[in-house]
Amino acid sequence: MRRIAAGAALITLTLTVAPASAAAHVPAGVAAVSSSTLSSSALSPLARQLGRQTLPAGDGWASAGPGTTGGSTATADQVHVVTTRAELVAALGGDNATNATNSTPKIVYVKGTIDGFEGPDGTLLDCTDLADPGYSLQAYLAAYDPAVWGRVAPSGPVEEARVRSVTNQTRHTQINVGANTTVIGLRGARLTGLTLMIDRVSNVIVRNITFDDARDCFPAWSPTDGEAGNWNSQYDQVSVRRSENVWIEHNTFTDGDNPDSAQPVHFGRPYQVHDGALDITHTASLVTAAWNRFDGRDKLMLIGSSNTVGPDVGRLNVTLHHNLFDGSLQRLPRVRFGQVDLYNNAYRLAGDDFEYAIGVGVQSAVYAENNHFTLGTGITAADLLYDWGGTAITTRGNWVTPAGGLPRPVDLVAAYNAVHDPDLSPDAGWTPTLRHGPVLPAPLVPLVVGPLAGADRLPL
């Protein structure tokens, strides 16, 4: 078995990295970038080639239409190495408020750790620096305690001050990315305390970066969310909205040393300061997310943000392959409307707070093939799907390894239907055609994906 695993890993690594070193992926007419043009440090020849790599043909939904080439045609003056928030904003166009409209092809290499809370002079801000003068958590808790305020939405001066505080944080920690852009990390690259916002643009690549702790300083209390109310946060680590042809590859998503599980309880509910890791919403489509690692988070990936039948119909088409979902609790992903191809992903699921893996939402069409689920104590195959108002999901060739048991094939729909009503149909009504390279047998998936998914696996 060791020889088989090693062989599969070598094959997969070759398939993943080889195109980056092939001259065919450096667009014709674009010269190799001289280190003298870079903003801070020289790049190796392989790093230069990886920065100009385009999504291989047929690699998921992001290869549809014109495909995804990111900043591969960037001229030498549009290749940057950045080490601070200010340099990141400058490299993306110069003005964070308008960078989303900057469609000039550009390649941005991230070096070291960049903190979204970094101030203009390089010092780190905290939540109090971004808070409106009329807001404090203590004042908010006092004003909207359900025992005093009741179970109605907060309103009035303190809530208005919270909203202004959110506007301040958004202006500072949401980093806007324009079209025709590649953001790629050098070894050890980390973006912490920020949201990479990809909104109303096309043709974006994000690779080889650890995204850490995109915390919300000003969560909102929603007293009618669920039976007991909930705290809700705003900021994702990467948010794809109203955009097309986006490739998210070989990144790591984590809350680091600030997990939601360590937050206090207010109004009897966990004070949650994080939202999604990678959310794809608001009519976005043609996205491929591959070889990423998602570590120990609660809410992970939302595909589609509303049950309203309208503009999302025919959109939200996403491919997820060779990702590692390790210790996360829900939304792996949760899907509405879109045709979502979910294959060769590895799941390590555990914990008393685990809720579900794949959420079958309104008019969703998930095709889940050859995924592997390693289950902790108390989790069964019947817990892997959740009906959020959907009707069908295709599941083929998936395996589970139960706690204390041996790996075995599983029919996810049959396992779900055996203990839940109403039944889900086993036919989502479509068959994926956009796949690059071989689809691995499910038993090999954890052996390959485990060591190869996530940031710092590319030779940068």
UniProtKB/TrEMBL annotation:
Q: Where in the cell is it found?
A: Secreted
Alphabetically list the UniProt keywords. Answer: Carbohydrate metabolism, Lyase, Polysaccharide degradation, Secreted, Signal
The superkingdom of the source organism is Bacteria
Tell me a GO biological process for this protein. polysaccharide catabolic process
What SMART domains does the entry give? Amb_all
Q: Where is this region: Disordered?
A: 55-75
Q: Which InterPro entries match?
A: Pec_lyase, Pectin_lyas_fold, Pectin_lyase_fold/virulence, PEL
Task: Give start-end positions of Low complexity composition bias.
Answer: 62-75
Looking at the record, the residues that make up the Pectate lyase domain are 130-379
Q: Which GO terms describe its molecular function?
A: pectate lyase activity
**Organism, per UniProt?**
Micromonospora maris
Q: Which GO terms describe its cellular component?
A: extracellular region
Query: What's this protein's family per the entry?
Result: Belongs to the polysaccharide lyase 1 family.
Protein's name according to its UniProt entry = Pectate lyase
- Identify the stretch annotated as signal peptide in this record: 1-22
SUPFAM superfamilies, alphabetized: Pectin lyase-like
